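Before going further, learn to read the protein records used in this course. The integers have meaning only within a learned vocabulary of local backbone shapes. The record below shows the convention in full.
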Amino acid sequence: MDMKSLSPLIVLAQINATSSNKTRNCYDSGITEEVLIFAIFTMLFCVLGMLGNGLVIWLLGSSVKRNTFAIYIINLSVADFGFLTFELIIEIHWLFTHLYCDFPYELFQTGLLLTFSTGQFLLTVISIDRCVSVLFPIWYRCHRPVHMFTTVCAVIWTTSFILSAIHFTIIAVDGFGNNYTLMYQFIINAVLCLPLMTISSVTLFIKICFISKRQRRRQLLTAVLLTLFFFLVLGFPLNAFYFILYFSKIHPNFLHYGYLCTCINSGINPVIYYLVGRQKSKTQRNVKDLLQRVFKEEENSTDQIETSGSSKI
């Protein structure tokens, strides 16, 4: 058999090898009953979470000052909204292609990674910010930069974008379908965020248990603690699953479960803000008033800082 007759077979073998390699790198391929159930529930929670976070962005974004703590909450809602949007697109893409790999899936996954990392970094900064405000209240109110919230959010978004861009560049050069580079970003998030978030949350919780009942009822601290708690329970396991996958094999449904729990966590924050704002409210208020009530105390503190700063000038 001459070389000309062998060349088509060689080309076909190379194509099959490439295809099988992509399939091996996909943590799921084809429609199964379990994956379909995960996809349906994930899309459901994505839609509900997008509605809730969109409402928070619309109500708070139009009324909250640009130098208050609520800037963190708005950016967190934007990150959650983006995460849910990309996850919904990924699940719809899977319904048509039956694969969790290749282009444009990797582009959607990069956007999901960007928003997921931003949300974790924001929650870490929020936990540290509230911990410092409780441990050193006078220093915090007097020495905190007025525009700190906006600056920190800009730095977080920029950092997440750079990390996600590096991830996309690596998989584009290495070949689409390789999901192993995705693990590094989740591991980085886990190593950086988990210790800081856990220490700050525990310190904040212990400190609140020993302060007066009047301070203990502060709604902002309650909302922050609940948000951090639900993230550690629902959102962080996705990092843990990828960390385990880096060292050993796990069942693909664990990843589907992790994404489902993360979608629930991203959608539950607006519910927390609403329930905390409604707590012990004797009068009927609309959603906008309830959301503003949670962050009213922080705005008043910021106004005091601005007033004292302007009087010194």
